Every structure is written in structure tokens, then in C-alpha cells.
What we know:
This protein is an alpha+beta fold and about 150 residues long. It has four helices and four strands, in the order E-H-E-E-H-H-E-H.
Amino acid sequence: MTNYYLAQINIARMLAPIDDLIMADFVTQLPPINALAEGSPGFVWRLQSDSGDATSIKVYDDDMIIINLTVWESVDTLRAFVYKSNHYGVLRDRKRWFEIFKGSYYALWWVPAGHLPSTEEGKERLEYLREHAESPFAFSFKNIFPQPADE
Length: 151
């Protein structure tokens, strides 16, 4: 049994408010994509409000920025969900609904098994990655850091 899981945060700035027609196709895909994540091998947890997704959870002063925060058993299980499942279609089409971010819009980091990261923790990791080089504190799929050693 592993002592660490992989946490990930990603943010996006919407082209229009969530209830605008521009966002309708994205919003329609939320329930099946969230269900796909929850049923995927290695899925542990995802941030969600009572509505079943995280689109109403505000972490930034900009109401157009939405957040996604999840925990996975490993890099491989998260990578498979992101790039090898139906989620990839949403990722591929993101320019239809979201602005292009300058700099990092997602960050990965290891958390102790059983720990559920807060939105502030995720925001801190993403901001660190945007301001500094990748490190064990925050990294991307391009430069994976190993799980911390057990003490």
C-alpha cells in the first residue's frame, strides 16, 4: 500500500459566465466526465459542491476562473484519465470555452494517503509552480518528481 497519492489542481478562465450559451456544451459534459473520473482506476477524490461539480467554488477574486482539484493513486492513473479517456475530448476542445493561460494552469504534488487538499493548498502549489521552477513542491507531467521517502 502506498503512503502517498497524487494531488492535482487545474484552473481555467471561462470565455463567458457558466450559464452563458457559450459554456453550455462544457456544462453538459460535466456530469458524465465527473462520473468517468470517479469510475476510473486510481481515482481517490474530487472537490465538489452540493451541485456535484466545482464550478461554483470560488478561489480567486476573478469569478470567471473555475477550479478542479482531485486526488489520484498515481501519476499513471491520472495521466490515463486525462489523456486516454473521453476526458481528452474536453481537454482538446478547451479553447471553445476557456482563455489560453500564460504560464502554468495546472500543478501536481504528492499528499499523504488520506489527506484531502484544500483549495488554498492547491492555489499555493499552482502559484509556486508559476513563480518558480518545478520541484517536489509543485510539478507537471513534463517533470514528475518521485513520492517522498517514508521516514
